[in-house]
Amino acid sequence: MISVSNLSLRYGKRVLFDEVNIKFIPGNCYGVIGANGAGKSTFLKILSGEIEPTTGQVSITPGERLSVLSQNHFAFDELPVLQTVMMGNKKLWDIMQQKDAIYAKPDFSDADGVKAAELENLFAEMNGWNFESDAANLLSDLGVKEDTHYKLMKELSGKEKVKVLLTQALLGNPDILLLDEPTNDLDVETISWLENFLANYENTVIVVSHDRHFLDAVCTHVADIDFNKISLYTGNYTFWYESSQLALRQRSDQNKKVEDKRKELQEFIERFSANASKSKQATSRKKLLEKLVIDEIKPSTRKYPGIIFKADRDCGDQILNVEHLSKHSPDGSPYFTDISFTLIKGDKVAFLSQEHIAVTLFFQLLTDEAKPDSGSYNWGSTITKSYLPNENLAYFTQDLNLIDWLRQFSKEKDETYIRGFLGKMLFSGEETLKKSNVLSGGEKVRCMVSRMMLTNANCLILDEPTNHLDLESITAFNNALKDWKHIALFTSHDHEFVQTVANRIIELTPTGIIDKRMTYDEYISDPAIKALREKMYSKQLMQTK
């Protein structure tokens, strides 16, 4: 168990945490949530001992081992992969190093023999004889191939490093596991493996993530950071979000009787419990929802952006026709080749690729920001497009306040009108006078969304729209796209976003296209599609050779 007592953290006049008291119990997985800047990652650093609190203390049950997912992707660059993983279990690694150092001594003494025997006993008690094989097996489970295990970390790609560092954190089933954004840069297969691993994990897990699907799959509790406090709620993220929204609506309904409110809450809990029992969620496994006290559910104080897309006109029958489109890298290797498809009314298409740059380039072609190597595309005459690029730095080079920045993109120049769109994205009062060239990543994306809403386009093109956003903004964006009745082309690493928005999946490969009208979950779980993907990507390898 890990517990926090009277914990406070202050930076000058800024108070991040104030008198926090909370316990994390074995067998549970806690999702730490909060707005950007609330202190989620900082809280994990306090738990790990990396940051000292201003007051209070963190206590761990004696003898328990705490493991942390490293955020420094360069810390182990000069070390072999397998050794990096084994160093995650510091105590066992140190015993092995001490033992080997004693045996390597040229003047081995009786005292050395006694010490070596003690270390051998400890080594055996900690299952040390399986240490290396366990590390290798876990690496393989996470998709790190055996021929990579003895390479230096600096030889690996960024995505491979993430898998190695995750393996390092998981090795040896630590008693307390701290994971800060563990799904970043992971492919869907690895995320699914991690979800199953953590859903069956019997020790304590504390995780920070912006991936709602992941939080729903693994969390038994939500630890909500708000007003410098941390409140603990039973259930996963979706349960916390839906119940807090229900409680907020009830609070605003002054005329509703207390008995009616309690009945509505009870019905909600029963409905959610029934849905959860049909899934793999850890909440159903623990049956924690059955123990809920209705009065525990409180309205959230979060502010959600008002993302509302409206189209000036409906789409005609001719929307987009793509014929034999191809694009190659400067060295001649294909990003995608011979891409052909036609859009129809109501299409909300999720674009996939093993190389994200392929989708970015494809969107740049469709918005005339890049030229294809071959092929053509034709937009219908009724189509108006609005594009949210993944990289937006070029839009924020001028020294303009937010009102003047957004005014550039609006036919209507009235300040009240402009402030209305900024206000929807939570920029109000003095915040609208911020300089556009000093905004954070999340603030820039919110500005770009304001710009999109101004256009009243009937076709939205979105390249990783949830990047840099907090959970509140991601949820609002997700809900806006679910309600959107026109055309959307998008790519996203947010599983929930793709699953709930897309009605068609198109995967761009170096050797062609996979085009299926189905949900994302259906796409990634279909054995025939999996075999087709392997065939198309292996075809590229054969052509390369």
Which percent range describes the beta-strand content? 15-25%
What CATH architecture of the largest domain do you see? 3-Layer(aba) Sandwich
Highest-level CATH class of the largest domain: Alpha Beta
The counted number of beta strands is 18
**Biggest β-sheet, characterized?**
6 strands, mixed
- Give the CA-based shape: globular
Give the distance, in angstroms, between the N- and C-terminal Cα atoms: 53 Å
Radius of gyration: 26 Å
Task: Give a structural overview.
With 545 residues, the chain is of the alpha/beta class. It folds into three domains: 75-171, no CATH class; 237-296; 320-544, Rossmann fold (3-Layer(aba) Sandwich), CATH 3.40.50.300. Helix content is 39%, strand content 20%. A hairpin with a 5-residue loop joins strand 10 (320-328) and strand 11. Helix 3 (90-103) packs antiparallel against helix 4 (110-125), helix 9 runs antiparallel to helix 10 (258-276) and helix 16 (471-483) packs parallel to helix 17 (495-501). The N and C termini lie far apart (53 Å). The model is unreliable at 278-286 (pLDDT under 50).
Q: How does the SSE layout of this entry go?
A:
Elements: E1 2-11, E2 14-24, E3 29-33, H1 40-48, E4 55-60, E5 66-68, H2 81-86, H3 90-103, H4 110-125, H5 131-141, H6 158-170, E6 176-180, H7 188-199, E7 204-208, H8 212-218, E8 221-226, E9 229-234, H9 237-252, H10 258-276, H11 282-286, E10 320-328, E11 334-342, E12 348-352, H12 356-366, E13 374-379, E14 385-388, H13 402-407, H14 415-424, H15 441-455, E15 459-463, H16 471-483, E16 487-491, H17 495-501, E17 504-509, E18 512-516, H18 520-525, H19 527-544
Parallel strand pairs: 3-7, 3-8, 5-6, 6-7, 12-16, 12-17, 14-15, 15-16
Antiparallel strand pairs: 1-2, 1-4, 8-9, 10-11, 10-13, 17-18
Helix pairs in contact: 3-4, 9-10, 16-17
